[in-house]
């Protein structure tokens, strides 16, 4: 595997040469490899993921950003191609025109540092037959737990990203290994079927290749309940959201709606409410790539911004959107570590990382106590938001009835939550003490530009319209 850290010297020189003409220049290098395994009741599959390896050069003309990307790192002619690419990029910038309209980029304090996420057991050290044996054990355990299981599937994937960012003051390198495990079961009874999945994704190595016994049991139990579940009667109800359901709520409600590149396009209503109360005072909502070990964490974003927490909502007040360099520069907003690309061949956008509701101090039993009739929602499946109109729709597979302060065991499926985002957020009356984050998510920007995200929160009690 090519050691991309060796490109530091040439990239520093190229940045210096480009900045002899343009106000700002930077470079980002990516080298991502991985593997994916699948085992179910009928087939076994193992494949290497397509390698993503390349460099993108960025210049700023004083008014516009321009980029040049190329692959082929490690080939004999690569350095010559890279130099020629930098020269071509500067020529294009000159044709566009170098101007001064008062947009000055802060390159950050001087920093030359390497980062690496901890990995106890590198997956490359584990033979394929052992990995498949681990998947087989989990699959077999799932299949024997319930006679109605007609298929059990176990997915494993591991990626290892090496990234280098260079500008005039910074030379930053990071290694990000991610391991994901997912189990899915299909149950059948008569002409009805139910499909449910669970699992996790974390920064790290083969040490995360497991599905806990309690998770397997919960998967089979809840899939069995969904199998015979009717639809609920639409209406407004007292609800308790599980941490997973709180997570999809966080992601859809104030994730996309506070990506500041949407502010530039006037596609987000959130821009009008900065500094205003939009949620219950109990609500705190953050986005942070600095959470240790979480799937969407990193040490710096693709524009060299060091990882840190961004408090989007504080005590119910919309405080800060998430930004990339372009949106922060043009809107005069605080720059946050959310400039991310799908790969070196894709554009930078303001993107979520780990997005989550903060903790409160009310436990689950307290939330249940005075609900005369409502629902506990779990196993979210999908969500969508209209950032401009602030409408939201969350879809889930599991709504368990609450009567007189107790879960009854009666389950309804599927369930859809709809509403106006501030109404839902302002209806939150209790927040649990423990934040749980799910790492299984990927997020697109308009059905493309996919990046790794995660979301979560504690249990939430609120009022919601269900259908």
UniProtKB/TrEMBL annotation:
Gene Ontology MF: a single term: metallopeptidase activity
Transmembrane feature ranges: none
Domain of life: Bacteria
UniProt domain Metalloprotease TldD/E C-terminal: residue ranges: 235-459
An annotated GO BP: proteolysis
InterPro entries: Metalloprtase-TldD/E_C, Peptidase_U62_metallo, TldD/PmbA_sf
A cellular component annotation (GO) from this entry: cytosol
PANTHER family, A to Z: METALLOPROTEASE SLR0863, UNCHARACTERIZED PROTEIN TLDD AND PMBA
Family from the record: Belongs to the peptidase U62 family.
Protein name: Peptidase U62 modulator of DNA gyrase
The species this protein was found in: Desulfobacca acetoxidans (strain ATCC 700848 / DSM 11109 / ASRB2)
């Amino acid at each position: 595997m090519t050691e991309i850290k060796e490109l530091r010297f040439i990239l520093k020189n190229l940045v210096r040469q480009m900045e002899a003409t343009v106000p700002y220049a930077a470079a980002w290098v990516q080298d991502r490899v991985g593997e994916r395994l699948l085992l179910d009741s009928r087939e076994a599959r193992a494949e290497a993921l397509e390698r993503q390896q390349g460099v993108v050069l960025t210049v700023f003309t004083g008014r516009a950003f321009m980029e040049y990307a190329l692959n082929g790192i490690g080939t004999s002619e690569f350095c010559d191609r890279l130099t020629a690419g930098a020269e071509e990029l500067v020529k294009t910038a000159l044709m566009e025109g170098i101007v001064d309209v008062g947009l000055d980029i802060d390159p950050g304090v001087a920093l030359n540092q390497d980062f690496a996420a901890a990995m106890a057991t590198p997956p490359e050290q584990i033979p394929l037959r052992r990995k498949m044996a681990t998947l087989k054990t989990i699959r077999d355990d799932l299949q024997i737990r319930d006679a109605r299981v007609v298929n059990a599937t176990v997915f494993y994937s591991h990626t290892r990203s090496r990234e280098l960012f260079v500008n005039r003051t910074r030379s930053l390198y990071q290694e990000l290994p991610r391991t994901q495990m997912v189990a899915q079961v299909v149950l059948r009874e008569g002409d009805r079927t139910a499909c449910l999945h669970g699992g996790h994704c974390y920064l790290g190595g083969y040490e995360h290749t497991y599905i806990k016994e309690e998770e397997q049991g919960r998967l089979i139990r809840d899939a069995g309940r969904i199998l015979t579940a009717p639809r609920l009667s639409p209406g407004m109800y007292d609800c308790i959201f599980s941490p997973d359901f709180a997570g999809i709520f966080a992601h859809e409600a104030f994730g996309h709606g506070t990506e500041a590149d949407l502010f530039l396009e006037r596609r987000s209503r959130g821009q009008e409410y900065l500094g205003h109360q939009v949620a219950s005072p109990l609500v705190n909502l953050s986005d942070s790539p600095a959470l240790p070990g979480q799937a969407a964490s990193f040490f710096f974003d693709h524009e060299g911004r060091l990882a840190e927490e961004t408090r989007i909502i504080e005590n119910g007040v919309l405080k800060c959107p998430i930004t990339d360099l372009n949106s922060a520069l043009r809107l005069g907003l605080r720059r946050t570590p959310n400039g991310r690309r799908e790969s070196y061949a894709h554009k930078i956008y303001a993107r979520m990382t780990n997005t989550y509701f903060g903790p409160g101090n009310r436990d689950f039993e307290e939330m249940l106590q005075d609900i005369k009739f409502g629902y506990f929602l779990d196993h979210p499946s999908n969500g969508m938001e209209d950032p401009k109109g602030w409408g939201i729709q969350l879809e889930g597979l599991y709504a368990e009835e609450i009567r007189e302060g107790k879960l009854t065991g009666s389950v309804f499926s599927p369930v859809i939550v709809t509403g106006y985002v501030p109404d839902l957020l302002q209806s939150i009356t209790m927040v649990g003490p423990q934040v749980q984050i799910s790492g299984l998510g990927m997020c697109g920007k308009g059905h493309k530009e996919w990046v790794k995200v995660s979301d979560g929160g504690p249990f939430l009690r609120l009022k919601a319209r269900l259908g």
